[in-house]
């Protein structure tokens, strides 16, 4: 799959991208208010385009800037008019380089 194929609410079986930006992590409270999680917004690209990648908790340290990664069993959602890619609860991120 390529970035140009991404659409809201689709499952991403496998995609390989390069991490080109990574913001400072921040802490958010779940919508139920019972848990704090760390989240980091990153930007990734392939030859077809760029998209935001949301990294959660341990994924933040796992994924270095300028690395090439593979996401399997991820998903895409739309937030404030922009697509967001994430490995989600059941997905996996592997660092390739």
Report on the structure:
It is a single chain. It contains one helix and seven strands; from the N terminus they run ββββαβββ. Strand 3 and strand 4 (49-56) form a beta hairpin. Strands 1-3-4-6-5 form a five-stranded mixed beta barrel. The chain has one domain (3-95): Nucleic acid-binding proteins (OB fold (Dihydrolipoamide Acetyltransferase, E2P)). The chain is globular. It has 97 residues and is mainly beta.
Quick recap:
This protein is mainly beta.
CATH top level assignment: Mainly Beta
Number of extended strands:
7
Report helical residue fraction: under 10%
Question: Structural class, judged by helices and strands?
Answer: mainly beta
Query: Sheet bearing the most strands, described?
Result: 5 strands, mixed, barrel
Form type:
globular
List the helices and strands and how they pair.
Blueprint: E1 11-22, E2 26-29, E3 36-46, E4 49-56, H1 59-62, E5 68-79, E6 82-86, E7 92-95
Highlighted features:
single chain, 97 residues, OB fold (Dihydrolipoamide Acetyltransferase, E2P), 4% helix, globular
């Amino acid at each position: 799959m390529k970035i140009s194929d991404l659409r809201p609410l689709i499952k991403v079986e496998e995609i390989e991208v390069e991490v080109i930006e990574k913001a400072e992590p921040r802490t958010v409270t779940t919508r139920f208010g019972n848990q704090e999680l760390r989240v980091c917004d990153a930007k990734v690209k392939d030859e077809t385009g760029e998209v935001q990648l949301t990294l959660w908790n341990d994924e933040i340290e796992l994924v270095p800037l300028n690395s090439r990664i593979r996401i399997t069993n991820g998903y895409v959602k739309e937030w404030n008019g922009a697509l967001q890619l994430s490995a989600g609860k059941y997905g996996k991120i592997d660092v390739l380089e």
